[in-house]
Specification:
Blueprint lengths: L24 H7 L16 E2 L11 E3 L2 H7 L6 E7 L4 E2 L2 E5 L4 E7 L5 E4 L1 H5 L1 E7 L3 E2 L1 E2 L3 E4 L4 E8 L3 E9 L2 E13 L9 E4 L9 H8 L3 H4 L1 E10 L2 E5 L2 E4 L5 E7 L5 E3 L2 H4 L2 E7 L3 E4 L2 E2 L2 E3 L4 E8 L3 E6 L9 E6 L1
Parallel strand pairs: 3-6, 5-14, 16-19, 18-27
Antiparallel strand pairs: 1-15, 2-15, 3-4, 6-12, 7-11, 7-13, 8-9, 8-12, 10-23, 11-22, 13-14, 16-17, 19-25, 20-24, 21-22, 21-25, 26-27
Length: 335
Amino acid sequence: MTTMTSIRNDSRKHGTLSVLAMFSAAALLALSACGGGSDKSGDDSAGKSDNAKSQTLAADEWVSNFDDFKEAADWDTAKVVTLDLGTDSLKPASLALVAGQPYEIEISNSGEADQGISAPDLFRGSAVRKTESGAEIKLTLFDGVYVAAAKKVSLFIIPVIPGSYEMVGMADDKPVAGMTGTVKVSGDVPTKPAPKMENISTAGVPAGAEDLITKARPTWDKDATAVTITMGDNGDAHFYNPKNTVLKAGVPATITFVNKGNVLHVYEAADFLKTAALWKVTGANGWCTGGLARPADVEAGVETSLYVIPTKAGSYPLTDSTPGMESMKATITVE
């Protein structure tokens, strides 16, 4: 388990970074009935701050200022909650959380096969800091957390909007019959900071991303371009290798970042990630699916893979803006 004292804040100082995810509108609408209700009282305008003590989560909105909650939280006070993915069951079947309280949810898999949970309504109604899966994973509005057999993944999260949210057990990216549960978030909507509720369309997922991924997944291993980007250091010199990675628009790609250096490095390619349809981001112990990938820490000796489909031609910078890492510069070219 990741100890609370080892959790880093996103201050952009080297060694103090962390990572977080997103989901398509169609999937969110399909599951919205489970996430605090589709009816919302008051103004539907995007980008408002709501200081009311009582608020429900509409089917088309999300907590867009999740970073404000992550920065304001005292993660040393995070409460540890456990959830096990057993054979055809979630244990416990119900989790009780409090709005505004930071949590580390330890998701273990005591089953014999890889499996996970889908809870997109909970994720979009919360501030998700990151997932630790043998690698740090940061995503906006992701839909699922998967755990390899006999492994454990930690989800760092602050529930924001009270309500009752469904968890659905998943295997082979399909719901498992009878493997359902509920996350009940009690308390009042936080006011410092207050949530900024926006339409999910503002999150920036490329148009048609879900359809692209659905079509590509059955033949991903055969069709995808597999590339490895090494992160390294030699004294004061820090680098990515190769300096330029070439991908093709519309062609699936598995990009593996491997830190062969002696210190933590970061992959920052926000402009590229905003144009890429995302299937999943993986670590040694599991992965997260859907949404929008964000810049992430990679500890020394760790690797993580992004399964994406580039959608827009261009030249995109790959950097690490941490002080002292100015030499970490490369390019991702999409033809």
